[in-house]
Amino acid sequence: MATETELKLALAPAAIPALLAHPLLAAAPPRLTRLANTYYDTPDLALLARRFAIRLRRDGRRRLVTVKGEARAPGGLSRRAEWETEVPGDALSFDHVDAPELRSELTALLPTLTPVFSTDFRRHTWRVQRGVSTIEVAFDRGRIEAVPAGRDPGQAVREAICEVELELLEGQDDDLLALAEALAATLPLLAAPASKAERGYRLYRQERPGPVKLRNGSTFLPASAQDAFCDYAFACLENFNRNVAGFLAAMAAPGATRNPPAPEFIHQARVALRRLRSALELFAAALPDDYVARWQSSLADLADALSPARDWQVLAHDTWPQFRALLPPRQATALARRLAAQERQALATVRATLADPATTRLTLGLLRTTLTLAALGNNTPRPLPLPHLARRVIRRAVKQVERRVARLNHDLAGANSPNPEAYARDWHRLRIAIKRLRYGLDVLRPLLRDKDVQCWIDHLLPLQDALGALNDSAVGITRLRALSDTPNDPLTAPAIAWLDGRTTGLHQTLPHVLGRLSGLTAPRLKKSSP
Known about the structure:
Layout: E1 2-11, H1 16-20, E2 31-41, H2 46-49, E3 53-59, E4 62-68, E5 77-87, H3 100-109, E6 114-130, E7 133-146, E8 157-170, H4 173-184, E9 189-191, H5 196-204, H6 225-252, H7 263-282, H8 289-323, H9 329-355, H10 357-376, H11 386-414, H12 424-444, H13 450-483, H14 493-514
Helix pairs in contact: 4-10, 6-7, 6-10, 7-8, 7-12, 8-9, 8-10, 8-13, 11-12, 12-13, 13-14
């Protein structure tokens, strides 16, 4: 068995000549091959369910059978077990799999295996020395083809391949990522988190890449606070890359102008950035100061670049349908067109930002520095046991929420004529504090008592939802005023009035929701945690 370590990047077709002439690849001419691959699975896709892939490759006269295990992809750097051998013909065989149990399982499935999809591409391959490492750089140009279940062979569907793969043959991850950063400095490369196999299965199942939510914390956390942060950072980065890739694919699809990408792509990308920035703050005591400062600033700038598009999408898709019926048909149609135009403009700006090589370099830099941090292990200058940090982090996050709640309760109770709207900044700060606490509970949940965590979540969710609606109203009013031709624009004034009314209603209910948090204590660590 070998372990494959590789990074996949999508390349704009217009940049192919620049890649082929790139100085970093000019030491020797590339090896040119044409590779035809067929992927097999059972009729019920049992291998997909187990995240395995079986491939028969035709490389000239050679035939290679490859079994790939489940991939771990810390931040986009894929690692997976791989068993590959040359075979005399086109018949599958698993005699080369040196894991007896897996070999038996695959052999038992052999009679049921059938072609599911294929890939056919030309490959340029270079071997590059970088630092102490040997890296294979492969450029693949071709297609994936599948006949979806229930269709005739003549109804195949296809998807183009135009990507660069960097595989670490020998050496260090850091050298591979340094080479990727150097290539991305002059080429329009984008993170490509989906493998050819994943894309092939999507074609076969007639699925489009959809928005991806970050899964809650794992059931196991390492003892080191730094290791726990790195694991979480990798998950956030992978989630961001997948939503960005899905968004850019949707923007490039036919009809994207009339049917813009699902708002959830941008939303989940921003959530991934927000979670990562919260983790930087929560784990700061265990991380190098320069690392925290660099990535807090860079990630904040990237999140800010996504905000206008998210604002217009919330207004156009979530808020607008709630009051559209209140407007006369002509007025409603005119306002809908204005909102759609603003959304298209904002999405085009976001597309340019996310497709910019600078964004790829940022994510590669974050991946590289985080992998370096993870490699330190116990040699970190700030070794800190995770349970120790968890106590500190959760107590501090709870106290921040309690302070914000106490201040609002005091101010509202002491006002002669309570006007919650006067404390908009304090409401916003409470919302941010609640999100930080929620993210802390998510990442540290395996260490905390389940009952305590669930109690806090049950009490926080209604308040977080109300504060989110309050924020959406405030942002919607700001955006609509910017859209107005005059201070009392008849097109936007009714919408602004509706949002003002919703804001007033939320302010009347929020003080009662605050009371639900009184008497709660910070979640405790499980008894098994030291």
